[in-house]
Automatic annotation (TrEMBL):
It comes from the Bacteria. Its EC number is 3.1.2.-. It holds the Pfam family 4HBT_2. This is Acyl-CoA thioesterase. GO terms for molecular function: hydrolase activity. Keywords: Hydrolase. It is an enzyme of class 3 (hydrolase). It comes from Falsiroseomonas tokyonensis.
Amino acid sequence: MTRPIPLPFENLPARAFHASARIRFGDCDPAGIVFFASWFALANAAVEDFFRDALDVDFHALHAARRIGTGFAHAEADFFAPGLMGDQVLLTPLITRIGGASYAFTMHVHRGSAELLRLQLVTATTHLDERRAVPIPADLRAALTSYQERCADAR
């Protein structure tokens, strides 16, 4: 396996969405370093902002009213440098694949220009009441496709 090389923030697509987060005491282990599981919680919060601000899809209505879940079906991480209590970071999702009932994206996490970690995430769309996979809703698919194209055009 080849280890990925950290990507400077400046190399991300110019039109990509960025969610800002502050690393808090509760995100860290006793050494003041972000606990690995906290990164996934921060990534999920960034996804909620991404839906609202970049996709114009109401994340909460999708889940609560429409009963469509968007949970992580696969997650992996490459850590390049520790995140520390008090850090201000930017989380940048880039869509890598849009399938029938799932989509994949890379979440780049930067402190300044330095990439701290990179998450590879696959999100499955499910019917929350029936507990089964369902096709990505048309409005979400269109928004994901548009965002993916915007980011590709900006490279």
